Structures are given as C-alpha cells and as structure tokens.
Amino acid sequence: MRRSDIYSGIVLALLGLATIFIIVPAGISTSDEYGLNAQVFPLTVMWLGTAVAALLVVQRLRESRDAADEEAPMETKNWLFIVAASVFLAATYFAITLVGFKIAGVAAIALLMAAMGEYRHPVRLALVSVIFPIALYYTFDHLFIIQLP
Amino acid sequence: MHDLVAGILETLTVVNVAFIVFGVVVGIIVGAIPGLNGPMAIAVALPVTFYMSPLAALAFLIGISKGSMFGGSISAILINTPGTPEAAPTAFDGFPLTQQGKGLKALKMSLYSSVIGATASDLVLFITAAPAAILALMMGPPEMTAVLLFSFTIIAGLAGNSLLRGSLAAIFGAFLSIVGLDPESALPRMTFGSIELQDGIPLIPLTIGLLALSEIIIQIENHLIHGDSSGKRASVFSKDTPPENRKVTAADWRACARSIWRSSLIGIAIGALPGVGAVVAGFLGYASAKRTSPRAANFGKGELEGVAATEAANNAVIGSALIPLLAIGVPGNLTAAILIGAFLIHGVQPGPLIFKEHGALVYGLFTAMALADIFNLLIGAIGLRLFAFVLNVPNAVLYPVITVLCIAGAYSSENSMFGVAVALIFAVLGYLMRKLDFSFATFLIGFALGRQFELFFRQTVILFSDQPLDLLTHPIAVGFVLLTFVSLWRIARQKKKGADTHAESPSVA
Asked: What Cα–Cα distance (Å) separates residue B14 from each residue in B4, B17, B20, B119, B356?
C-alpha cells in the first residue's frame, strides 16, 4: 500500500488545499453577526484533513521499501472497470429519469445478469429481469405508498 | 397499582396483541428492505392509527419500531446491505460470516442480542424513567460536545490497518456532513445552488452506496476480470455446513455475553440522550467490543461478537429513547418524535403528568414493549430460515436484483432521484475506498457525528464565549473531556508499543 498511500495522500492534500482556498470560500458565505462563523468548522476540519494527508505522504516516504508493500492495489484494468461501471450507473440513472423505473430496471438487471454469465440461462435471465422490477414497483406503490418514477 | 393492572390487562386483549404481532412483522419486513426504515414505516402507519384505541395505536407503532431495528440486520448480514443505517456496523462482520457459511448463526446471534438489548432497555425505562430523564436534562450543549468528542476516539478502534488512513476517512466524512444549511444562520453551505443539498447529504442513500453497491461492484469486477468466485456465499443449508455453523453454541454465548451487556448499556445511555441516536450507539457498541475483545484482530473478518455488540447497542436505544419522551415530553430520537404525534392524536400529552393522568396507558405501553420483544424473538426465530434462503440464490441473479433494490431504496428514502444519485456517487467512492484500504466505518462515523458535534460545539461557544471558565462548573463535560484525553493517551501508548514490537521483530526473526 506504500505507493498508493503516497499518491492518495498527495491527491487528498491537494484536494484539501483546493477546498480551503477555493471551494469553501465559494460555497459558504461568511456571517460574523452571531456565534461562530459558518466557515470555521469546515475550514478547521479541512486543515486537519490536509495535515493528516501530508503526514501520510511523509510517513510513507520515510518507510523503507518493501517489495510486497509496493504492489499497486489498483491496476489499469481496475481503473478501466470502475470507469465502465460509473458509465453504467450513470446510464441507469438517466434511463430511470427518461423511461421510468420499470423499463430501466428490466434493462439494468438483464445487462448485469448477462455480464455475470447468466446469458447461459436465457429463460431465467428473462424471467428475473422482467418480473423483479415490476413486482418491486407495485410493491412499493401499493404496500409502502411510494411511487417509484 | 390499579393503573398497572389495568394497563397490563388492556394490553393483553386479543386485538392489541394482534396489533403488536402485525407491527413486528411489518417492522421486520420494512427494516430488511434497504432504504426503508422504522421511522419511515411509523410515519406511514400513523394515519392508520387514527381509528384505533390509544393503546392499540402505540402498541402497533412500537411493534414496527422493534421489528424494524432487528430487520435492518437481516439484509446487512445476508447481502451486505444494511436495511437501516443503524445496522451498518452489523454488516462489517455479519457478511463475512455469511461468506463463511455462518449466515444463519449470525442471524440468530443478531436476533438474540437484539432482543436482549431491547429488553434491557425496556427494563431501564420501566424502572428509572423519571430519574433517568432528570439526568438526561442535565446534558446540555457542553456535555453533548464532550460526549461526542469522546465518541470520536472510537475511530482509532475502527481505523483498520492504518490509523492515518482511518482518520483521513473520518475527517472527510465529517467535512461532507457540513453540507446543507448552517445550523445557526441557516445560510446554505456547499450546496452550490442545489435545493436538495440544503437538507444535507442523506445518510440512507449514502450508506446504500458506500456499503452495498460498492460491494456489488467489487463482486462483479471479480467475476469479470478475475473470473473469481471468492465472493460466492456458502449455503447455510448445505450438507457440508457443520451444525455449529448454523447455531449459536454455548462457546459463542460465553464469547459474546460481555459485549452484549456492555453494548446494551451503551445503547441505553445513548438512547436516553436526546438527539444522538441508534447509529452512534451501534458504532460505539461495535468499537467498544473490538477494543476489549481478545479476538480484536478478527473483527471485520467475520467475528460473531461484532454482530452481537452492534445489535445489542442499536436495539437498546429503542426503550431508553422513550425515557425523555415520557418523563419530560422531549423525544430522544426520530421514532420518539413521531410517537409524540401518536400520543397527541389520541389526546395524550407526553410529559411529567402522563404517569398521573394516563397511568394505565403508560403501563399498557410498557407491557406492549415487553410483548413486542417476545414476538420479535418468536417471529424472528421462525423467519430466520426463510430469510437465509436468500443465500441459495446464485450470485449472478442476486447481485443484479440487489442493485435494483438498492436503487429503489435510495429513491424511496428521499422520494426523489437525488437519493439515487447520492447512492451511485458513493458506490464509486466506496469502491475506491475499499481498493485503497480507507475505512468506510470511520468515514460513516465522521459523517454521522460531524454535524451533531458542530451544532453542540457552536451552541457551547454561544453560551460560554463570555465566561469560558464557567465550563469547569459542568462536571459531566469535564469528565468526558478527561476521558477523551485518557483515551488518546492509551491509543498513543498502544501505537508506540506496536511500533516497538514491529521494530524489534526482524531481529527476533
């Protein structure tokens, strides 16, 4: 984890600095009329976060290199996978807003089941992907009085 | 005495008992569904109780509350998806136990410890409602600030392999908790024009994304990239499953008993404090068990004690949260706040006079709570094998189905697509945190406690900014601050000891 700690520490420290100097001033208006300023707690927390992230980097840099510890927890294929998964999740989100929960749910389950090898059982894939989202939709609607989109 | 007998007898009527049973069943089902929770079900059921007698209404709602708290652990253990936020720490060890083929054992321990915690809490409520409420009244902003400050020290116990990474996760969790309206000035903070964000980042979709969806992403990745079946769950009904993996043995009881009682006490204390809640109790119970257990290294990898401690703590909140409600009319948590509505609908004003004016109703409520514990145990025990059948569903069917269930749950918690967006964003964040070994337990603690800590701290500043030395006249606050320093000193000493051992080990080898 040593190398990934160094990289993630650097990223978090930079994110912390960006939050302190750009995001918090832009996202929180100051008010000095009463009690503590609204920026005090967020800035304190983020200064602490930046300091701990920097400490993580320094501590890992001072550690001796260990071959096992140098293994990256995420390889290129993992990064590609999470990008693809994010695209799938975003597509599911927009599909629900566009065509509704029932159709988007059928498509999402069918795609995920197929990706996990269930294309070998097409009947099961079809039954589960069609029945479950529709049953769930009407269960929420009638039993819990929650109208899914 | 007359009120006591009248209350007990009225509760034991067939109709009232039937409402308790129905409430417990509804509660378990609702609790087990990610995104839905007890307070939500109670709020939905409240209008239904207009037409019931006051006692039947309260008994029904209490049944839902008790059932849902246990129900939350079912999905946490079986599919790593906490049905309720309180059950998040239950998943830390419950799901690994399921992966080891001990899902039924974990469910049983969850049920037993839930009932023990809830019963202990009820007993405290029955016996000490009035004096405990007076103590709870003494907990002002400085005391609550000190208690929450002390609670942050549990991060050390849950930080995982690195205290620095665990602390970072907690700090960023605390930072995200500030999103929303400023507690003093009501100015928007970090909302960037979003109306939905004015209420802050919602906890339920965040938990669903961080714990459940991120785990599903990992499992699908294992399947697609590595062709790995390590995520496959062992069936609890397989002939290969040893009998001791399906039941709670005497040895398990001996190992967990101390944690169950300690967590019950933690839950009772937390429940009696207005505004803290079962989420904090669950984490504190889990952390205290880990800190004191001889099997601390096994926590997070499938330790039954972790399940027992969490469930005892979060269930122990239910009874004690009614202490301030009944004694002084102040709700201890969201459920108690909704129950105030049930009292008022039926013309009952919770507060110091309730024992005098509606004694039979109060003792009837106590009896209903005791009955709800018994029915929770019976219905839970009957339903366990049914729940555990989930494990027989192939992963390739289960994970896609859970994904859509999580999306529905995230939507229902906010009644908008905003909840879904939050769950999906935190699913990706949770994936990265798992891969890079950042503890999501500490992240959740930071998120759950951060906003409350800020609120109480700022109230303290307003109250004592002119006379800061007056804080020394608050012995409870001073005591908890001292406890925090002692705890930090112990953590530092343990770390130093660990570093020394680490440094010496090569020469030993």
From this structure: 19, 5, 10, 22, 27
Query: Residue A118 corresponds to which amino acid?
Result: E
Residue that wins the pLDDT comparison between B147 and A22: A22
Whole-model pTM: value is: 0.76
- Indicate the average pLDDT of chain A: 88
The Cα B14–Cα A148 span in angstroms is 37
Please check whether residue B204 is in contact with residue B419, taking contact to mean a CB–CB distance below 8 angstroms: yes
Q: Does B406 touch chain A (CB under 8 A)?
A: no
Minimal C-alpha gap between B12 and chain A (Å): 28
Enter the ipTM.
0.91
Q: What is the distance between the alpha carbons of residues A142 and B62, in angstroms, rounded to a whole number? A: 23
Strand partners, B180: B189
List, in order, residues 6 or more apart from A15 with CB less than 8 Å away.
none
Strand partners, A28: B189
Inter-chain Cβ pairs, chain A and chain B, closer than 8 A: 176
The contacts of residue B95 (CB under 8 Å, 6+ apart) are B76, B77, B78, B79, B80, B215
Whether residues A38 and B450 touch (CB distance < 8 A) is answered with no
CA contacts within 13 A on the Cβ side of B35: 27
Q: Which residue of B has its CA nearest to A20?
A: B175
**Contact between B208 and B35 (Cβ < 8 Å):** yes
**Residue B142 burial (C-beta neighbours within 10 Å; 0-12, 13-18, 19+):** buried
Tell me the per-residue pLDDT of A94-140, one tens digit each, with 9 for 90 and over. 999 999 999 999 999 999 999 888 888 899 999 999 999 999 999 88
Q: Which residues contact B281 (CB under 8 A, 6 or more apart)?
A: B86, B263, B266, B267, B270, B271, B313, B314, B316, B317
Q: B44 contacts in A (CB within 8 Å)? A: 144-145
Which spans in B152-277 are helix H? 155-158, 163-177, 203-207, 214-221, 250-272
d(CA B91, CA B440): 12
Task: Look at residue B34 in the predicted model and tell me its pLDDT.
Answer: 73
Task: Say yes or no for a CB contact (<8 Å) between B417 and A96.
Answer: yes
For residue A45, give how far its alpha carbon lies from the nearest alpha carbon of chain B (Å).
6
Do B192 and A48 make contact, defined as CB atoms within 8 angstroms? no
| pLDDT tens for each residue of B418-429 | 999 999 999 999
> Cβ B404–A35 below 8 Å, yes or no?
no
Low-confidence ranges of chain B (pLDDT < 50): 230-231, 504-509
The three-class DSSP label of residue B320 is: helix
The region, left, alpha or beta by phi > 0 then psi within -120 to 50, assigned to residue B421 is alpha
Distance from CA of B428 to the nearest CA of A (A): 7
pLDDT of residue B270: 85
Q: Which of A1, A12, A136 sits opposite B437 (nearest CB)?
A: A1
